[in-house]
Amino acid sequence: MTEVYSTTTAPNPKNSCFLVPSKLLDWNQFVLKAAEVLLSLVAFVLEELVSSCISCTPLYFFEFVSCTAFLFTALLLILLSTSLHQKVGISCWSKLDFVYTAGISILLLISSIVFAASNTGSNLEKVAVVFGFLALLAFLLDVGYFVKTRGFPFRTDPAPGVSNGGPAVVATHETERLNEQP
């Protein structure tokens, strides 16, 4: 009996709902985003377990930021790692990813510092703050990795083109006229 399919037959990638790696998300960034989701979830859950507070405003701000980081990063991860991003109608996913990740980094930095500075000093609050800073570290690593691999997404100066295998010659204006009399 002979086999119908040879060992070189590859699965059809369009049948898969999981699209990593892709042009929007490679494996390293996928792992970073998954770490962001998990660390911000743990920070949120630990903060929710705090039963008393001296000044509750920093606690509530930390709660808001960690919950937002968890929910929206999970949504972004699902959208970028599946074909759902094609159905949303957004064409600038790289810019959206960069702005969101940088924005959440800033909010996590502020909320973690404020919550660390004004809490009752319980072990639960300290651990929540540690996970807030760990989530911040994951977001900062993601921003750094993004810039390192893709560059700054809002760069306006275009890269020089290539002509016949070499760099394109940029036309400059003549400073002297050819037919001008001295």
TrEMBL record:
Membrane topology recorded in Swiss-Prot or TrEMBL: Multi-pass membrane protein
Protein name as annotated: CKLF-like MARVEL transmembrane domain-containing protein 6
Subcellular location: Membrane
Main location: membrane
Taxonomic source organism: Oryzias melastigma (Marine medaka)
Domain of life: Eukaryota
Any single Gene Ontology cellular-component annotation: membrane
InterPro entries: Marvel, MARVEL-CKLF_proteins
Keyword entries, A-Z: Membrane, Transmembrane, Transmembrane helix
Residue span(s) of domain MARVEL: 24-151
Segments passing through the bilayer: 59-84, 96-115, 127-147
